[in-house]
């Protein structure tokens, strides 16, 4: 005899004992006099949340004894005040240690729908449920034949009750649908290890008709599971142990309800207006507590600035008069010719010329925006990390403009390959610190900047350069960069009479230029979006910075945010490699990870070879020397063209974001193409920055020095 | 009302639930309970016992796998034998943003030696067997990557008491809070001198074991002098509801230990211990025998300073 058979037999025996005391006719009369049931269907599906059915449960066959519940009514009231939409009361006594007495106590205490959870075997139990004031009853497909199932369903509904029909697998779901169940609970527990697999739930629930309310029934312990079920399309969740055994029942229910609300809120927003801290499962604030105050301050100052017309006016004025915005939108017919030669696709290609901005890249957009916030916060010192040097130059520039003290952290390897930018930053009055710890590239520069920030947070702003890091950086930097796409859209319209591009291509390191050019098009399904990561020597080589290709990145927490991450089997950050310092990063902005997971942006990569070949193509065809970073977008455009062709486009309009100019890369490119001798190349490398991180930063023994530095 | 109308049924149910005691025992015998653990925190018990004796706890940090797997077990045993009450076993991480040069160097050495998270449970057992309370200090990605539930299960089985999370704030700790509740593990979050009262209250509410108060703004590392701010932070953290507040970051001498121990429930020392195992360059391992002798001497001196702080 299976556990279920045993439970059903026991339920029947107990029911018969109760019927001997209160016969069917008597229980029908009591049911008729009971207060009308609540229409629970209206409580189990909402636009703005995932209703929680909180269960009063002392034990279960799968989990054993969970705990005493001396006062079910008090527990139910705590559930109700925590935000439960319905309460489930186990009345099975043999294995679940419940009773109808529990049910009555709860009924008297709360005013939300009540589910009687038992092994319903016959009409008597349905009448009995109603007599006790139940609004919802449970029918278990596995425990009943189709005929009984159908009869009990119809009787329950005729008494005004909602029926939660529980199914475990595809076959049972089909049976539930066939008898006309409108609320189906899916119990996706793996019977071998009792674990719950959200993806199994998703596969099972996918077959349900759209008018059916889907209740995820098993293994909801905390917000992690609610989050997973909500994303998999569950309308409501039923949770027992997770709330019944919590120390603070009200708080436990509240946390679950909040998780559901968060997912629903996220699903209903237009993609382009998503705000942190979370983008789907990504984002957040994985930082030391010491930074929370500064992040909160930044968030509130930014929120206030966003609502202040004066801020926008000043930002717009500086963009126009100092940066030189709008940046041009240049048609590139000869480059389009190369695309046609390679792919056979006859595309019109437009270049968004962020390379024409003051300082030569899109980075100035964000640096300027954040510098205005630094003024508002009253801080006097700015630190920043830089990879290619473009963000460091932009930061040094705005610090010069606003009279702020500036220190730039740069990995030693990056500093050597971007010697000219190191010199530029110093000319602009910034202190450049060459980071010698770790792998000596961008991520290590960020670590040092974070250590500095933790130490000097009182007077220092960390002017993070990309859409990564802890909230509010991903949304805030996106907001400062989205002008790229907004201008391009308008320019296509006004200057070329084109309504929308068919494709947008951008390179993705941290991802700020890509988010910037794509944001205006996220909610326009006609626009195909393509992001290209740094392929280095190719995904199989292990020498790359590809986070999104299968077998490369995994979800992890890195430098303040949850996103895709290149890590080894121990969770240690992997070394990355790219010819382009600006794309050489182990993680990626959380919004990109989300856009990848929901399939809105197609992410692929361009190798060093492909990027350098596209670099030369643009130089030769259009007289524009792009940054090597941007060359990844150009190389990607060939791939995007092939994809568009495969999708049936014949004369598409392609927009490519030229995120920066390539002057800084002339030494690298000259060497790559053999225009410079080794000696000439060497001469162009830095002679070594004068300070190094190990003797000059916020670590051991230098904190005091740093804090005075900032004054 | 129906409640009275069907009283007979209630009476019957109540009579039947009289058999609950028996069922309860059956359940415990037949099924593995997976509910919330209510096992008391050994850390809190120890801190309470020490408090009764008016003595602060000495909490020592060493990274697992440094200078190598076996060497780290010897070093852990050494600090327990020389007076450490609670051990923070650090998990070496490639990007330790809350750590200064000494612990960065030790972490890199350990990772270079092939340190693996799986092995840390051996260190947990070693500390427990030596008679101290084992905590793990880890950047969150390592635990997340290993699997939060898997980590909690194995950590509990090894006799671990709790986890210190330098880059996980309570706001992001949902999965860990739930797993730690299931396994009866301590959740030790940090606070810093500029934490607002609201933040202190949020941390105190979610903490178990103790709250880790950073003595100053900044990363780990030895300091010649300590400011007065930790005492104020300890006071504010207690006021925010924390029952135990221990102070770390920058405490490196017996005198500083005595100073902090006069008001904190525990004194946390890390870099000063790790330092003894490094050579003069501060980046390479010194001879292990010499190192362990130095470690023993440093630990014993700190133990005296801290444990006698209020005499």
Automatic annotation (TrEMBL), chain A:
Protein name: Multifunctional fusion protein
Required cofactor names: pyridoxal 5'-phosphate
Catalytic activity: (1S,2R)-1-C-(indol-3-yl)glycerol 3-phosphate + L-serine = D-glyceraldehyde 3-phosphate + L-tryptophan + H2O; 1-(2-carboxyphenylamino)-1-deoxy-D-ribulose 5-phosphate + H(+) = (1S,2R)-1-C-(indol-3-yl)glycerol 3-phosphate + CO2 + H2O
Pathway: Amino-acid biosynthesis; L-tryptophan biosynthesis; L-tryptophan from chorismate: step 5/5; Amino-acid biosynthesis; L-tryptophan biosynthesis; L-tryptophan from chorismate: step 4/5
PROSITE patterns the record matches: IGPS, TRP_SYNTHASE_BETA
Subunit architecture: Tetramer of two alpha and two beta chains.
Residues found modified as N6-(pyridoxal phosphate)lysine: 363
Domain Indole-3-glycerol phosphate synthase: 5-256
Residue numbers spanned by region Disordered: 684-711
Residue ranges of domain Tryptophan synthase beta chain-like PALP in the record: 326-647
Class of the enzyme per the UniProt entry, highest EC level: lyase
Alphabetical keyword list: Amino-acid biosynthesis, Aromatic amino acid biosynthesis, Decarboxylase, Lyase, Pyridoxal phosphate, Tryptophan biosynthesis
Catalytic activity, EC: 4.1.1.48, 4.2.1.20
Similarity section: Belongs to the TrpB family. Belongs to the TrpC family.
Molecular function terms, GO-annotated: indole-3-glycerol-phosphate synthase activity; tryptophan synthase activity
The keyword Hydrolase is assigned to this record: no
């Amino acid at each position: 005899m299976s556990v279920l058979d045993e439970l059903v037999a026991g339920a029947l025996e107990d029911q018969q004992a109760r019927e001997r005391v209160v016969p069917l006719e008597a229980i029908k009369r009591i049911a008729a006099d009971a207060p009308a049931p609540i229409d629970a269907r209206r409580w189990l599906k909402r636009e703005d949340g995932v209703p929680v059915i909180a269960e009063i449960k002392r034990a279960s066959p799968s989990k054993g004894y969970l705990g005493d519940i001396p006062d079910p009514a008090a527990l139910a009231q705590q559930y109700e005040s925590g935000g439960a939409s319905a309460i489930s009361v186990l009345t099975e006594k043999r294995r679940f240690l419940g009773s109808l007495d529990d049910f009555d106590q709860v009924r008297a205490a709360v005013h939300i729908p009540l589910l009687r959870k038992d092994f319903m075997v016959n009409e008597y139990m349905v009448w009995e449920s109603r007599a006790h004031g139940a609004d919802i009853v449970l029918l278990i497909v596995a425990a009943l034949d189709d005929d009984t199932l159908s009869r009990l369903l119809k009787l329950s509904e005729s008494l005004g009750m909602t029926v939660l029909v529980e199914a475990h697998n595809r076959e049972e779901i089909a049976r539930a649908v066939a008898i006309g169940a409108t609320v189906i609970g899916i119990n996706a527990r793996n019977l071998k290890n009792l674990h719950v697999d959200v993806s199994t739930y998703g596969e099972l629930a996918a077959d349900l008709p759209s008018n059916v309310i889907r209740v995820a029934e098993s293994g909801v312990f905390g917000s992690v599971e609610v989050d997973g079920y909500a994303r998999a399309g569950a309308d409501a969740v039923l949770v027992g142990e997770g709330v019944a055994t919590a120390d603070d029942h009200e708080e436990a229910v509240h946390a679950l309800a909040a998780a559901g609300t968060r997912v629903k809120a996220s699903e209903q927003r237009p993609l382009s207006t998503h705000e942190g801290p979370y983008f789907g499962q990504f984002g957040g604030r994985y930082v030391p507590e010491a930074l929370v105050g500064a992040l909160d301050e930044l968030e509130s100052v930014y929120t206030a600035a966003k609502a202040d017309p004066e801020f926008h006016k000043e930002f717009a004025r500086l963009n126009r008069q100092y940066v030189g915005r709008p940046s041009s939108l240049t048609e590139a017919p000869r480059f389009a010719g190369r695309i046609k030669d390679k792919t056979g696709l006859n595309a019109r290609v437009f270049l968004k010329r962020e390379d024409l901005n003051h300082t030569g890249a899109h980075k100035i957009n964000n640096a300027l925006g954040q510098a205005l916030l630094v003024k508002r916060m009253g801080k006097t010192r700015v630190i920043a990390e830089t990879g290619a040097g473009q963000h460091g130059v932009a930061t040094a520039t705005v610090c010069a403009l606003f009279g702020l003290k500036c220190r730039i952290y740069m990995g030693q390897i990056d500093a050597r390959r971007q010697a000219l930018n190191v010199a530029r930053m110093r000319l602009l009055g910034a202190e450049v610190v060459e980071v010698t710890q770790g792998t000596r590239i961008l991520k290590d520069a960020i670590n040092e900047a974070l250590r500095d920030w933790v130490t000097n947070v009182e007077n220092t702003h960390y002017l993070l350069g990309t859409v990564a890091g802890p909230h509010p950086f991903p949304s805030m930097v996106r907001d400062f960069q989205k002008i790229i796409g907004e201008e391009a859209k308008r320019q296509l319209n006004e200057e070329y009479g084109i309504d929308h591009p068919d494709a947008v291509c951008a390179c993705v390191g941290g991802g700020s230029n890509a988010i910037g050019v794509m944001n205006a098009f996220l909610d326009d399904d006609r626009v195909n979006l393509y992001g290209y990561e740094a392929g280095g020597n190719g995904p199989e080589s292990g020498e790359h910075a590809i986070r999104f290709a299968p077998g490369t990145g995994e979800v992890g927490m890195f430098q303040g945010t949850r996103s895709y991450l290149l890590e080894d089997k121990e969770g240690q950050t992997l070394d990355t490699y790219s010819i382009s310092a600006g794309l050489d990063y182990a993680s990626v902005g959380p919004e990109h990870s989300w856009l990848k997971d929901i399939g809105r942006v197609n992410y692929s990569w361009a190798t060093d070879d492909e990027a350098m070949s596209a670099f030369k193509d643009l130089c030769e065809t259009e007289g524009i020397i792009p940054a090597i970073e941007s060359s990844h977008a150009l190389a990607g455009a060939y791939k995007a063209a092939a994809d568009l062709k495969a999708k049936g486009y014949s004369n598409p309009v392609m927009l490519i974001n030229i995120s920066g100019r390539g002057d800084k890369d002339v030494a690298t490119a000259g060497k790559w193409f053999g225009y410079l001798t080794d000696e000439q190349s060497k001469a162009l490398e830095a002679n070594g920055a004068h300070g190094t991180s190990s003797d000059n930063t916020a670590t051991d023994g230098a904190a005091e020095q740093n804090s005075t530095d900032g004054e | 009302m129906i409640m009275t109308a069907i009283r007979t049924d209630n009476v019957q149910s109540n009579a039947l639930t009289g058999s609950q005691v028996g069922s309860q025992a059956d359940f415990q015998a037949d099924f593995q309970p997976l509910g919330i653990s209510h096992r008391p925190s050994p850390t809190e018990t120890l801190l309470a016992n020490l408090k009764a004796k008016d003595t602060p706890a000495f909490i020592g940090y060493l990274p697992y796998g440094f200078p190598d797997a076996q060497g780290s077990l010897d070093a852990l045993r050494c600090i327990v034998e020389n007076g450490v009450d609670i051990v923070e076993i650090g998990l070496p991480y490639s990007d330790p943003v809350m750590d200064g040069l000494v612990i960065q160097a030790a972490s890199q050495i350990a990772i270079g030696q092939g340190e693996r998270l799986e092995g840390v449970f051996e260190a947990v057992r070693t500390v427990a067997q030596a008679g101290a309370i084992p905590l793990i200090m880890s950047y969150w990605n390592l635990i997340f990557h290993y699997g939060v539930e898997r980590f909690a299960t194995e950590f509990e089985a090894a006799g671990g008491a709790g986890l210190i999370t330098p880059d996980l704030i309570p706001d992001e700790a949902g999965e860990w809070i739930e797993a730690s509740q299931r396994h009866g593990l301590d959740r030790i979050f940090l606070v810093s001198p500029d934490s607002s009262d609201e933040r202190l209250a949020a941390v105190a509410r979610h903490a178990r074991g103790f709250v880790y108060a950073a003595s100053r703004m900044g990363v780990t590392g030895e300091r010649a002098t300590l400011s007065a701010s930790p005492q104020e932070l300890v006071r504010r953290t207690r006021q925010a509801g924390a029952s135990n507040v221990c102070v770390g970051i920058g405490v490196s001498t017996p005198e500083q230990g005595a100073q902090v121990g006069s008001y904190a429930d525990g004194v946390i020392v890390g870099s000063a211990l790790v330092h003894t195992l490094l050579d003069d360059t501060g980046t390479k391992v010194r001879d292990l025998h010499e190192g362990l002798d130095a470690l023993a001497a440093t630990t014993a001196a700190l133990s005296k300073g801290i444990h006698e702080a209020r005499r």
